[in-house]
Design brief:
This protein is of the alpha+beta class and 379 residues long. It has three domains: 7-120, Orthogonal Bundle (Butyryl-Coa Dehydrogenase, subunit A, domain 1); 122-232, Butyryl-CoA Dehydrogenase, subunit A, domain 2 (Beta Barrel); 238-377, Butyryl-CoA Dehydrogenase, subunit A, domain 3 (Up-down Bundle). The protein is built from eleven helices and nine strands. A four-stranded antiparallel β-sheet has the order 2-3-7-6, covered by helices on one side. Helix 4 packs across helix 7. The longest helix has 37 residues, at 231-267. The protein is globular. The structure holds acetoacetyl-coenzyme A. The site of acetoacetyl-coenzyme A (CAA) has 23 residues, from helix 5, helix 7 and helix 11. The site of acetoacetyl-coenzyme A has 23 residues, from helix 5, helix 7 and helix 11.
C-alpha cells in the first residue's frame, strides 16, 4: 500500500488549486447571487485539460488516472461547485461513457471535441416521474428503421442549456422493461429538441440546470450507444464512475469549508484569546479534519479501484454516501464557527453549506447509495 501521490498527481492538484483560487474565486459570490453560469471559466478549464482528464490522448484527452481527477475535483469544488458539476458530468458521465461504450465514429465525431472542452456534454436520465426509480422511463425512442423517434421530457439536466451533445436514455420496448431502454447521442440542433425552464436552486446556483423536451425528434440509429437494449446498463455503469466525481465534489465542499473555518478560528478572538484555543471550537475542527480525511480515503480508494480496472461500484457508492454527509456536517459546523459572519455571503461558508445539499441528491440519493451498497453486501 502506498499513500504517496506521484509527481504528476501533485502537479495536477497544484494546477487545479491555482486555477480555482485565481480564476474561480474572484467572481464566485456574484455568479451564485445572479445564477450566472461560469462559461468563461469552464472554457479555460477545457484549455487546461480539466474537461476530459481521463480520456485517451488519441481522442484529445489528458490520459490521466482517476486519482488525479479526484484531486482536481476536490480543489475546484473547494471554491465553485457550479463549475465542478459541469466538469464532473462532462468527464465521468459523458466522456467516460462515450470512450468506454461508443463506436469509433462516435468517438471521432463527439468525444474529441468534448474532451477538450470545445463543447459540453449533458447526461439525460432523470424525468419528472423517474428520479431514483430510473427504470421507469417515460421518454420513448420508437424504432423506425434507420432512426429513433424520440418523445418525452427530462428534468434537472446539468449543462441543460450550455451543452451541445446530450446522452439521452429512452424506452424503446416497454415489454422488455429495463432491457428495452436505449442510450442515444442527441445533438442540440436536432429538430424537436427544446430547452425548457431553468431551475432556480438552493445551491450550485451558477450551474445551468434545465428541463428538456423532445418532440418527434429523429435520432439516427448510428447514434445509439452499445447494442439495442443496453441503455439502462450503460446509465448504471456510467453512474458508478460519476459517483466518484460527485464524492470528490462533496469532499471539496467539506475541505473548502474546513479551511475557511480553520483560518477564521485563528484570527477571531473571544474571551481574550483566538477562538481556536477554546475547546468548543478546537473539537469541532478535530471532528471536521477526521471526517474529511476519511472521506478523502474513500474517494481515493474508489478512484484507485477504477484505475486498477477492478469493480468499483460499491466503493463509489460508499464514497458518495459518506463524503456527501461529511459535506453537510462540515459546512453546517463551518457556519457555526464563523458565528454571525458565517451567515453572510462574503465569508463563503453559507454558499458551501447550500451547495453541499445537492451532493446527497444527484447521481443517486444517499438512500440509493445504500441500496447499491446493501445489494452488494447481501448478494
Ligand atoms: N452498476 C452496474 N449495474 C447496475 C448497477 C450498478 N451500480 N445498479 C444496477 N445495475 C444493473 C443490474 O445489474 C441490472 O442489470 P441486468 O439486468 O443486466 O442484470 C440492471 O441494472 C437493473 O438493476 P435492478 O434490477 O437492480 O434495478 P432496480 O430498478 O431495482 O434499481 C437502482 C436500480 C440502483 C435503484 C437504479 O435505478 C439507480 O441507480 N437509481 C438512481 C438513478 C440515479 O442515480 N440518477 C441520477 C441521475 S443523473 C444525474 O444526477 C447527473 C447530473 O446531472 C449531476
Amino acid at each position: 500500500m502506498d499513500f504517496q501521490l506521484t509527481e504528476e498527481q501533485l502537479a495536477v492538484q497544484a494546477a487545479a488549486r491555482d486555477f480555482a483560487q485565481n480564476d474561480l474565486l474572484p467572481g464566485v459570490i456574484e455568479r451564485d447571487t445572479h445564477e450566472k453560469f461560469p462559461a468563461e471559466q469552464i472554457k479555460k478549464m477545457g484549455e487546461l485539460g480539466f474537461m476530459g482528464m481521463m480520456v485517451d490522448p488519441k481522442y484529445n484527452g489528458g490520459g490521466m488516472d482517476t486519482v488525479s481527477y479526484v484531486l482536481a475535483m476536490e480543489e475546484i469544488s473547494k471554491v465553485d461547485s457550479s463549475a465542478s458539476v459541469a466538469m464532473s458530468v462532462n468527464n465521468s458521465l459523458v466522456c467516460w461513457g462515450l470512450e468506454k461504450y461508443g463506436t469509433e465514429e462516435q468517438k471521432e465525431k463527439y468525444l474529441k471535441r468534448l474532451a477538450t472542452g470545445e463543447i459540453l456534454g449533458a447526461f439525460c436520465l432523470s424525468e419528472p416521474e423517474a428520479g431514483s426509480d430510473a427504470t421507469s422511463q417515460r421518454t420513448t425512442a420508437e424504432d423506425k428503421g434507420d432512426y429513433y423517434l424520440v418523445n418525452g421530457t427530462k428534468n434537472w439536466i446539468t449543462n441543460g442549456n450550455s451543452a451541445s451533445v446530450y446522452l439521452v436514455i429512452a424506452q424503446t420496448d416497454k415489454e422488455k422493461g429495463h432491457k428495452g431502454i436505449n442510450a442515444l447521442i442527441v445533438e442540440r440542433e436536432t429538430e424537436g429538441f427544446v430547452v425548457g425552464k431553468k431551475e432556480e436552486k438552493l445551491g450550485i446556483r451558477g450551474s445551468d440546470t434545465h428541463s428538456l423536451m423532445f418532440q418527434d425528434m429523429k435520432v439516427p440509429k448510428e447514434n445509439r450507444i452499445g447494442e439495442d437494449g443496453f441503455g439502462f446498463n450503460f446509465a448504471m455503469s456510467t453512474l458508478n464512475g460519476g459517483r466518484i466525481g460527485i464524492a470528490a465534489q462533496a469532499l471539496g465542499i467539506a475541505s473548502g469549508a474546513y479551511e475557511l473555518a480553520l483560518k477564521y478560528s485563528k484570527e477571531r478572538k473571544a474571551f481574550g484569546k483566538e477562538i481556536s484555543q477554546h475547546q468548543a471550537i478546537a473539537f469541532k475542527l478535530a471532528d471536521m479534519a477526521t471526517q474529511i480525511e476519511t472521506a478523502r480515503l474513500l474517494c481515493l480508494k474508489a478512484a484507485w479501484l477504477k484505475d486498477q480496472k477492478q469493480d468499483f461500484s460499491q466503493a463509489s457508492a460508499m464514497a458518495k454516501l459518506y463524503a456527501s454527509q461529511v459535506a453537510m456536517d462540515t459546512t453546517v459546523e463551518a457556519v457555526q464557527v464563523h458565528g454571525g459572519y458565517g451567515f453572510v455571503k462574503e465569508y463563503h461558508v453559507e454558499r458551501l453549506m447550500r451547495d453541499a445539499k445537492i451532493t446527497q441528491i444527484y447521481e443517486g440519493t444517499s438512500e440509493i447509495q445504500k441500496i447499491v451498497i446493501s445489494r452488494n453486501i447481501l448478494k
